[in-house]
Amino acid sequence: MSLNISDIRSDFPILSQTIYKRPLIYFDNAATTQKPIQVIRAISDYYEHDNCNIHRGVHYLSVKATEAFEEARREIREFINAPSTHEVVFTKGASESLNLVAASFGKKFLLPGDEVITTIMEHHSNFVPWQLICEEKGAVLRVATILPDGELDLENLYSLISERTKIIALTHVSNVLGTVNPIKEIIAYAHKQGIPVLVDGAQGVSHLKVDVTDLGCDFYCFSGHKMYGPMGIGVLYGKEKWLEEMPPYQSGGEMVKDVTIEKTTFNELPFKFEAGTPNVEGVMGLRAAVKYLKDLGMDEIRAYEDKLLQRAVSSLSAIGGVRFFGEAPGKASLVSFLIGDIHPFDAGTIIDKMGIAVRTGHHCAQPLIDHFGIPGTVRASFAFYNTADEIDRLAEAVARVKTMFK
Ligand code: PLP
Description:
Blueprint: H1 5-10, E1 18-19, E2 22-23, E3 25-26, H2 37-50, H3 60-80, E4 88-91, H4 94-109, E5 115-119, H5 128-137, E6 140-144, H6 154-159, E7 165-171, H7 183-192, E8 197-200, H8 212-215, E9 219-223, E10 234-238, H9 240-245, E11 256-259, E12 264-266, H10 280-296, H11 298-319, E13 322-324, E14 334-339, H12 344-353, E15 356-357, E16 359-361, H13 366-372, E17 377-381, H14 388-404
Parallel strand pairs: 3-15, 5-6, 5-7, 7-8, 8-9
Antiparallel strand pairs: 1-2, 4-10, 9-10, 11-12, 13-14, 14-17, 16-17
Helix pairs in contact: 2-10, 3-10, 4-5, 11-14
The structure holds pyridoxal-5'-phosphate.
């Protein structure tokens, strides 16, 4: 079934506003997505009816809030097809999930001289935590490169694997190039050599159907706010066998079983990694976002967004002088580009004045931007509430920028 875009748009109150006397066109979805009214209501309903600290009270509200929180965990487990709710840890977001694994897995398993493999297309959140832990442990960070069209260079990636490789950490979808990495194939290859794989799914879950069991990944990390849910909430999926062995990342209430003056024992999974009062409102909002995505259907979302992408690529190409970064087949719905030699900030500022929100700069992926030897790009990233008409407005704006700088 195809999506009813005008019905969908009416669920997103923020989209109906005008800016600079023009209808807002929001193409900064890779930075954060807008929230449907269902998500906004889930948060306010929680505070109006159920607010309470969870897991530790015997009274009515506490039990009700705890049940809703754990039901949300079950629904999110089902959404990504994780085998068990023990493997679904709530975090602040993808960055915290990635930091958790780098710090905790690194503490337990990395020795001097060991190696971690990542790629040149990573967001800083899946790069810097590994850089830091490698530095601390005397391990070596190896970085796989890309092909000219923005595909991961698999031959290069596989050539970096050695008997010292302890983990491969890579993104599912590049936030700059839109490249969808063949993670299932990479995971199968790595597992043959006994190497676990972490997938940064921050740009994956909002565009693709994610099945962590089918992928076989050891870890999968994502943020609520990039999938139509609230900010400040995210998920770490981790295989039980790793999470059991990994030491706690943070400590405090909730993550302990027994505390004496001499010693502390830790709570069972996933609570071992959920120190302190969790973001219950965030979990309620994320639960509503997951339901929203499931109701639309990830395959329908992907098909519609792909049409938007094709329209953007052809209309921007027709202008002439637009250089794209990331042209891998099957890429996700974003375009990163430069218009001649116009600085991306200048282009972005003018495009903004035409009511269109695009992102400019290095997109928190400086090693990749350095690889291209450019100051940054203009990035327009699309969501299922965007329209063909909005894409045409973007092409007009880009043509206007080109004329202004002639
Ligand atoms: N990984 C990728 C690929 C991203 O695009 C982002 C954010 O843009 C992150 C990680 C970090 O996500 P967050 O800032 O929500 O923690």
